[in-house]
What we know:
By secondary structure, the chain is an alpha/beta fold. It has one domain (2-202, 233-257): Purple Acid Phosphatase, chain A, domain 2, CATH 3.60.21. Helix content is 27%, strand content 26%. β9 (185-186) and β10 form a beta hairpin.
Amino acid sequence: MKILCIGDVVGQNGCEFLRKALPGVKRENNIDIVIANGENSAQGNGILPASAQYLFDSGVDVITGGNHSFRRREIYDMLEENPFLLRPANFPDTAPGRGIAYVDKGRCTVAVINIQGLVYMNSLDCPFRTADRLIAEAKENGANIIIVDFHAEATAEKKALAFYADSRVSALFGTHTHTPTADEQILPGGTGFITDIGMTGPYLSVLGVKPEKSIAFMKDKLPVRFSYAESECQMDACIFDICEKSGKCLSAERLTVK
């Protein structure tokens, strides 16, 4: 089974580029499931029902989130109602939504888990213990393929969780930094891994933001209203080919579409 994992979709331009690029990528690579991080898909920041629905209508099967998942209150009801719209599982139980989704492909069930890191980020439940809990839940529910989006800042934290979950999940990919890493690999226990799959949005930018806005914020140390860049876009992604019988990763292929 081939699973396409797409880096953080940024703003309206990122959403529109994904809609343009995704059909060809799915067709050329025989993709079975599409997972995309959509926590920045709304224009401005966060995620809104309209941007989430736009991604679903464009061919995304599961939308994952991160530290901006709750920035726009309008999304709260959709987080509760749509089982394929995720937020990090290690937020408190009182937060809207869920951190695991199940995609029934008939011949097998795929579990998608969303977890957030702690280094340089919000204080949440331990990602390692959260992974233990959700991996056990996924297996109890008959999922023989388990995919994890670990939304985290520190590369060491991402790699540590990947090795911790090795052999227990099919693939773990990192999101959040908006910068793709060149370390796609299969770990000794058969788990596919990449530290960060990057971003879907304007590539002549600072993580999707107009460079002059980021420069002003970092140089002058004063509040700045960020706005997204208007340059040409690219879609960063990784394709994991998973054995449906064993749940092991057969290959991990990083790709960038411009």
